[in-house]
Structures are given as C-alpha cells and as structure tokens.
Amino acid sequence: MPRTLFEKIWDAHTIVDRDDGQTLLAVDWHFCHEGSFHGFNALTEAKLPVRRPERTLGMADHYVPTTSRDLNAIDNPEIRSVVDQFYANTERFGVRMLGIEDKDHGIVHVVGPEQGISQPGLIIVCGDSHTSTHGAMGAMAFGIGASEVAHVFATQTLWQARPKAMRVTVAGALQAGVAAKDVILAIIRQIGAGGALGHAIEYDGSVIRGLSMEGRMTVCNMSIEAGARAGMIAPDKTTFDYLKGRPGAPDPADWPAAEAFWRGLQSDPDATFDTTVRLDGGLLEPMATWGTSPEEGAAVSGRAPDPREIDDADRRAQFQGSLDYMGLNGGVAIADIPIDRAFIGSCTNGRIEDLRAAAAIAKGRQAKVPAIVAPGSMPVKRQAEAEGLDRIFNDAGFEWRESGCSMCVGINGDLAAPGEHVASTSNRNFKGRQGQGARTHLMSPASAAAAALQGRIGDVRDFAPRAL
Hints:
Aconitase, domain 3
C-alpha cells in the first residue's frame, strides 16, 4: 500500500498496537529542559534510572537569563530553584546537559538540528509543544506531557494515538520581503488554530522546497499553533547539505548508507491524506498578528476585522475580545498599529539566517523603541559576531543578548510592561505570554526589525535590505 512520510516513520517505530487505538512507539531521542522536573521526580519515587541516557539530551533554556552567563543573575529564588534542580537531576541520572556555561548552549529546538542530532526518519520527543520544529529534518517530532516525559525517561518508549495525515501544499514563488514566518502565519490564518487538530502535517510544494533548512524549521515549529500533532518536510538535498559534517551526523564512512535510506523517506505518489490544503505562495504578503491567537493575523497591507461585520456570534465575540485585550479598534490598518518594543529570537526565529535578515533591515538605521536580539544558541551568537551582526544591531540601538528563550515566554526576566505592544518573532501571541498585560504581534525577523525602526508595524517592503 502507498504510504505517507508520516506512516513510514510511524510504522518503522511501532512496537505494538493496542485494541483501543494506542500504539507503543520506540523513541530515538528525548530532549528535556528545566520543566522536566516532574518526570525526574517520578523516576526518583519509582527508584528507576533513565533507560537510555545516551539518547537523552538536556537543555537549560526557558528559565535562564540572557543578560549574563552567570546563574547568579537569576534573582527570583523560585526560578533559580527550578534551574538548580535541573542541573542536579541531569547529573544524578547521567544525562548530558547543556547549561549556560556550555559553548554549545542554546534553545533545545535550535541545538538539536544545529548539532546534527535531529535527523530524517527519527522519532523525537520533548516536554515542549514546539518540538515539531525537528520535523523540518524529515523526522516525526512532537511535544509530550509531564507523565509522558516520565514514561520516556523510564522506557525510551511512548504510547500514542495514531494521528491523521494532512498535506499542506504551498505552490508558486514568494514575493520579495515574504519570509517563512509569513508562510506559516498565512497557513494558520487560512485553516485556523484548530484546523490541523489530530493531524500530522506534511508540507510540500515549490515554496516549501525553496526554503532553507532554517526557513523549514520556522514553518514546522508553528505547526502546533494550527493544532497539529506534528509538522514535517520530506528530506532532500537541502536537508543532506545542512546535516553533513555536523557533530551528531553520520561519519563519512556511514554517510552514503544514511543518505540512501533518507532518500526513501518520501510520501509515495499515490499515498492518501485525510486532509489537503493548498496555498498560492505568490499571493502571500508580509504578515502580522493583530489578536491573541496565531490565527488572528493579516497581511500588513490589510486591516484587522471589524466584529460588527461578522455574522457568526461566537466568532464576533472572539474577535472583539482579542481586539479589546490588544487595545485596538476593529478595522484598524495593520501597518498603523503602534509598537513599544521589539523582540528578535526564540526557537522560531533565533537562527543565523533570521538574524541576518533583521540586521539587513537595521543596518545604518536607528530604532525608535527598545529592541532585544537573543541568538538561539551560542554557536549562532559566535557566528553572528564573527559576521559583525552584533555591531550592526548595537549601532542601530538594539540590545545584543546571550542565547536562551528570552522574551518568547515571560519566565526568565525578559518581559514587556502591561499594555505594551511587542513586535515579536516568537510563536505565540497569547494573553500575557510576554508579561502580564503585554500585547504580542507575531511577525518575521525582518518585519520586527522594521517595526522597531518605525515604532509601528509598517511594511518591511518599504525598507531596502542592506548588504551585510
């Protein structure tokens, strides 16, 4: 029978199927961060070891500061306790952990691909919803809950219900100024925040194939914001070129066999998908969100909806509630929405390509509002500094930080004040995500840089990128 990429990976990792529809899957890699303390506590109570510590990698990323490489910079005792506990747990259970003192430290979903650990055909899990990022490598990657983290620690397996398969095709060619972040925001706007619920998405089409690996990671990263269980892209030459020579990649002697296997990880021509979606990439514009869900976005040339013009009562109430929280009027032009600060970074857009795109807009110009740039990893930071991107940002009035999740999530000291509008390259614009009362507008790195320069969302296409 013809099979999809998802089915090939799922079937290859199936240990047993239960009558209730649950499948026991073998897990190749388990990534964990500071939030995994519940799982470690469960092991301690059961007096069990980590089953495969060599296939487990810890990352201190969510709670660590980006103003310093010193844990003493954490002045909140509760936050410091969580970080200290993670250091102690990984040492006790023999799990390799990349702390802020490590040269390869970074956000878990940046480090996995960067180190060549995330590879085609694997099943990768982490107690973090944006684990779908690793699907860009042609893997099946998804977030898991606290009890599931404990189960994987103890057994290196996981019970899961088999999701449905969705294909999202983005055809055509992108216009200048349109980035991978705009593509995924447009997809989510079209299908909705629950449009892929219960599905594993496979992205394809000429636009997807034309994206770099970093762009593909951005798209897969936000699959969860459409309700998907996972997002993935079949591996190709772009994937192989990215992986070759990385620390965790196959050795040169093993590379030919690995690549030959990976080339077979494609959906068969006659494979059946439960749901199909198609977008014309040539019609896409730079995007920004106006509301409190990633689905509440629009092209920068457009306007936020006017709830009075919406017939559906539930939808009308949803949009009105979002606009009220954001302090916006219905029908406001997206390009006129004011911005009080900007954030460039996160597991969605903290890679070197993202920083280059933002720096090309910031170069030789001056920010009107405070802006933070937090590289997704220390290797990204070193590369950016070698290319002089840090100087470009500093000269433009942006603040150059250390690696970490930073302002994507308000638990590490990087916060917006109540009522502030933030141009953000992160993945969620939920109420309070970047601080109590903060108002988040999701957009691409170049668009966020342009917003910082103007003090409003504006249109990145009004700024000619400058040579770096």
